[in-house]
Design goal:
Elements: H1 8-13, H2 30-45, H3 50-57, H4 61-73, E1 77-80, E2 85-88, H5 90-100, H6 105-120, E3 123-130, E4 133-140, E5 155-157, H7 162-168, H8 173-183, H9 196-209, E6 212-215, E7 222-230, E8 236-245, H10 254-271
Antiparallel strand pairs: 1-2, 3-4, 3-8, 4-5, 6-7, 7-8
Helix pairs in contact: 2-3, 6-10
Organism: Thetidibacter halocola
Protein name: IclR family transcriptional regulator
InterPro entries: GAF-like_dom_sf, HTH_MetabolicPath_Reg, TransRegBhcR, Tscrpt_reg_IclR_C, Tscrpt_reg_IclR_N, WH-like_DNA-bd_sf, WH_DNA-bd_sf
Length: about 280
């Protein structure tokens, strides 16, 4: 029997309205926007009192409190009565973890991270670019007592991160300059590259050797060696790295670790169906 097309199939298939490109205020829910600002600020602070959070958001305490109570009912935030502080809750983690399931990157990278940690004896990390910074997605820690620690969800400036510089080095020079100019070249240690010309020279060297080095540029006494992961279009979409104390990663073994990191990045690239930039 022939079916009559009444347009319902199209309506069911649509996931956004016809004017979805319209990002003007008429399509924004201002109260929700303010609530998201509260959530993002709380995440950045890692925990805060109502007074401090209200000040950071420049919103009235009563308004922020209503947002927090609403989010608490969904498990998105938690309240520590003893310290009178609010924190990100388990519900936020569950929502974030569903983002990771959208791609096979994390699944494919996890065994490679374990192997890389075993091969180098140092902590292995996976990160992606997010809003001009590096967002760490996964980590396999070394068994050593002194080690680098980047829990999932940690953000780090690209110019002072091994993964960040590995990704910047794969961008067109103009794009990398725009990204770093927008974020600024903040100094964290006396090793941090805070001059655009110094960073540009470092990125050029990174491209030539295939891996980036964070030489105590974010934290004194810690080094990181990273290489890019490419998608099916040959675009750098993530980075994999090894990080640890400078005393255990002296200059003479950096090339050896760099080669292992490059191979690990190639393995993940292959696992997600990617191909290195040609």
């Amino acid at each position: 029997m022939a079916q009559i097309d009444d347009g319902s199939a199209e309506r069911r298939a649509r996931g956004r309205p016809r004017d979805w490109n319209d990002k003007t205020d008429q399509n924004r829910i201002k109260s929700l926007d303010r609530a998201m600002e509260v959530l993002e600020t709380l995440s950045r602070l890692g925990g805060a009192t109502l007074t401090d959070l209200s000040a950071a958001c420049d919103q009235a305490p009563a308004s922020v409190y209503r947002v927090l109570v609403t989010l608490e009912s969904r498990g998105i935030v938690d309240f520590d009565a003893g310290f009178q502080t609010w924190h990100i809750g388990a519900g936020a983690f569950l929502i974030g973890s569903r983002f990771l399931r959208r791609t096979s990157l994390l699944e494919r990278a996890r065994p490679v991270l374990r192997s890389l940690m075993a091969a180098t004896g140092e902590t292995a990390n996976l990160g992606v670019r997010r809003d001009g910074q590096v967002l760490f997605l996964s980590q396999v820690e070394t068994h050593e007592s002194i080690r680098a620690f980047f829990p999932p969800g940690t953000m780090s400036p690209m110019h002072a991160s091994g993964i960040g510089k590995a990704l910047l080095a794969q961008m067109p020079v103009e794009e990398a300059a725009r990204v770093t100019a927008a974020e600024g070249l903040t100094r964290f240690t006396h090793h941090t590259l805070t001059r655009p010309d110094a960073l540009s020279a470092d990125l050029a060297m990174t491209r030539r050797r295939g891996y980036a080095i964070d030489n105590e540029e974010k934290t004194l006494g810690m080094r990181c060696i990273a290489a890019p992961i490419f998608d099916v279009h040959g675009e750098a979409v993530a980075g994999i790295s090894v990080s640890g104390p400078s005393a255990r990663i002296p200059d003479e073994i950096i090339p050896e670790i760099g080669a292992k990191v490059i191979e690990a990045a190639k393995e993940v690239t292959k696992g997600i169906g990617g191909q290195p930039a040609g």
